[in-house]
Design goal:
The chain has helices spanning 26-37, 52-59, 63-72, 90-103, 108-117, 122-155, 166-176, 181-188; strands at 16-17, 46-47, 49-50, 79-81, 84-88. The longest helix has 34 residues, at 122-155. The model is unreliable at 1-22 and 31-43 (pLDDT under 50). The protein starts with 15 loop residues before the first strand and ends with a helix. By secondary structure, it is mainly α. The strands form 2 sheets. A 3-stranded antiparallel sheet has the order 3-5-4. It has a two-stranded parallel sheet with strand order 1-2. 56% of the residues lie in helices and 7% in strands.
């Protein structure tokens, strides 16, 4: 049987249904994985598989990044047909989840740990989220202290700027004494 340009066997009348993965819908994810291993079921439902290029276009992630994420274990190794990767449509949702978690501050190493923790149940990932939240709170506090220091520099009435501002100089002295920026700056405004 020949193939048409879409990759479907010529004359194939099987209906293709695309399924969207919703985070937390592990039952759907398992059904998609099951269908990906067996192209059709007794109901005749076929799940479309994506090439790495199609997955890249659907998610906006470079193919090299997808291969790297696969190497790191963030993406499960896909089935290969004629040597080419074939991802289930659920991979789009998984890539989206990786992007979102990366955007909130998880490193690729942390994402690997997080992905591995999914098998450990709900509480396995909770500690990772709590640790990341504490990190973000610290980064926010640092950013707020930096903003306060810069705002002071802009408000400073000294014509020569902060280099001659006595309040800012006290903050610098506090920082040199080992105080964190938020404490050093408040020290400078005594």
């Amino acid at each position: 049987m020949g193939h048409d340009p879409s990759g479907q066997p010529a004359g194939d009348t099987t209906r293709t249904v695309e399924l969207a993965y919703e985070p937390g819908d592990d039952a759907l994810l398992e059904r998609v994985r099951s269908h990906a291993r067996k192209p059709t079921t007794s109901s005749g439902l076929e799940v479309k598989e994506l090439t790495i290029g199609e997955l890249a276009r659907a998610t906006g992630v470079a193919t090299s990044a997808l291969r790297y994420w696969e190497e790191l274990g963030l993406l499960p190794a896909p089935e290969r047909i004629a040597g080419r990767r074939r991802y289930p449509t659920s991979a789009v949702g998984l890539v989206g989840m990786i992007l979102a978690l990366r955007d909130v501050g998880f490193t690729l190493d942390e994402l690997g740990t997080l992905m591995a923790s999914r098998a450990g149940g709900v509480d396995a990932w909770r500690e990772l989220y709590e640790r990341k939240l504490a990190e973000l709170d610290e980064r926010i506090a640092q950013a707020q202290a930096a903003r306060t220091a810069l705002a002071h520099a802009l408000r400073c009435g000294n014509r020569e700027g902060v280099f001659h501002c006595p309040n800012f100089a006290r903050g610098v002295a506090g920082r040199l004494a080992g105080l964190p920026l938020h404490e050093a700056h408040s020290h400078g405004e005594d």
